[in-house]
Design goal:
Blueprint: H1 5-23, H2 27-33, H3 38-47, H4 65-75, H5 80-90, H6 95-100, H7 103-115, E1 120-123, E2 139-143, E3 146-157, E4 164-170, E5 181-187, E6 193-195, E7 209-220, H8 232-268, E8 270-271, E9 274-275, H9 280-308, H10 314-339, H11 349-356, H12 367-395
Length: 396
């Protein structure tokens, strides 16, 4: 699809229509039930939303990174439950396979993920290994034609409903660093794999999150991603680099929606004989929201294009995720303020998003972890540049 602009334009048009006509009218239903109705899940399967970033050779749409974020801007303007339901398949739940899977692994699983027949999940985080991902304790030992996994993962999006888990586990207990970690594909139903009930959460109703437990779970050796031990952490970083760009886009869509809701309300709400949108302090909040949304969107699109061009975007992906998630929180706060008392009442999109978007600043790397990452990369590059200059001066 990346070579056919007309097809992609049609997809964006379809997503906008779906959000406006099918998703938005049922947001309260999803909030009450804490689940996306199966008819809407099936509708998204039919529309191909589960396979956006999966290559066309495996039944997906083959979207480039730029196209994926443009689509994400649109889909995330409705309840987060919709993008979360398809998001693991279009991103974090399939990307390890796309990036490093063997041909047999791709042929086996990617068509099922692209169709939405199978829901994927990315099982990295543990109770003591979140920001410090290398500290993971889940183990995998080789026994004949299997690996035996033991350990527990937490905060895993779609864990209660997923059928396929990308699991990071330590295969070399003598290596406590990244080189001792490998990546596996574990299917629900494999003996020893279980998941918890969905957590009760502050927000994001309809997006189930839970634990994954491995108790002597036997995974066929052919499910070692890429067929090589010790590559799991590199695979995870590839996944997270792309996912951070994707998530930044998924932070921007809700900000767009909240600003639209706030602008609509302030244009009709009157005080002192005129719409409150005419008051300069309201206009200041509108301007701040619009500017920050534009900044986030611009950053994300530039970074996506760089990734598509094959450039290293580790620094830019961190900056996008940090800025967009923090921006979304600021827009949410201003939107509630512009709606006044109504913004604090349950039953409106702004109040719901205010709760939903708070976690954006925590998952896929907290803001503080991204600050450290951005600073470390910046300092390392400065030191590398100093070395280059010193070498050049000595050579002269």
């Amino acid at each position: 699809m990346d070579h056919d602009p007309q097809l992609f334009d049609a997809l964006l048009h379809d997503v906008r229509r779906f959000v406006r006509e099918e998703a938005n009218p049922r947001e309260q239903e999803i909030e009450r039930a804490d689940a996306v109705p199966e008819d809407l899940v099936e509708r998204m399967r039919t529309l191909g939303y589960f396979g956006w970033s999966i290559p066309r050779a495996f039944g997906g749409a083959g979207l480039s990174t730029e196209q994926l974020v443009l689509a994400a801007f649109e889909l995330s303007q409705c309840s987060v439950a919709f993008r979360a339901r398809v998001g693991t398949n279009t991103g974090i739940g399939s990307e390890a396979l796309v990036a490093d899977g063997s041909d047999d692994q791709k042929q086996c699983y990617l068509p099922q993920l692209a169709s939405g027949e199978l829901t994927g999940a990315f099982a990295l985080t543990e109770a003591d290994a979140g920001s410090d991902a290398v500290a993971l304790r889940t183990t995998a030992r080789r026994e004949g034609d299997d690996y035996v996994l033991n350990g527990s993962k937490c905060f895993i999006t779609n864990a209660p409903i997923a059928g396929l888990f990308t699991v990071m586990a330590r295969t070399d207990p003598a290596n406590p660093g990244a080189g001792g970690v490998s990546a596996f594909l574990a299917e629900r139903g494999m003996p020893g794999l279980s998941t918890s009930e969905p957590y009760e959460k502050m927000g994001q109703a309809g997006s189930p999150v839970g634990d994954v437990q491995f108790d002597e779970c036997r995974v066929p050796a052919c499910n070692l991603i890429g067929g090589r031990e010790g590559q799991g952490f590199r695979t995870a970083m590839k996944v997270l680099n792309k996912q951070r760009i994707h998530l930044a886009a998924l932070c921007t869509g809700p900000a767009i929606r909240m600003l639209n809701e706030a602008v609509a309300y302030t244009r009709k709400r009157e005080q002192f004989g005129q719409p409150i949108a005419e008051f300069q302090l309201i206009q200041a909040m509108i301007a701040e929201c619009q500017t920050e949304i534009f900044a986030a969107r611009s950053m994300i699109l530039e970074t996506a294009r760089k990734r598509d061009a094959g450039e290293d975007v580790t620094l830019e992906a961190s900056m996008c995720k940090m800025f967009a998630s923090e921006m979304c929180g600021r827009v949410a706060d201003r939107a509630v303020q512009m709606l006044g008392g109504r913004g604090y009442l349950a039953g409106n999109a702004v109040e719901r998003f205010y709760r939903d978007v708070r976690v954006f600043r925590i998952y896929e790397g907290t803001t503080q972890i991204h600050q450290l990452n951005i600073a470390k990369i910046t300092l390392r590059r400065a030191a590398e540049q100093d070395s280059v200059v010193a070498l050049a001066e000595r050579a002269a």
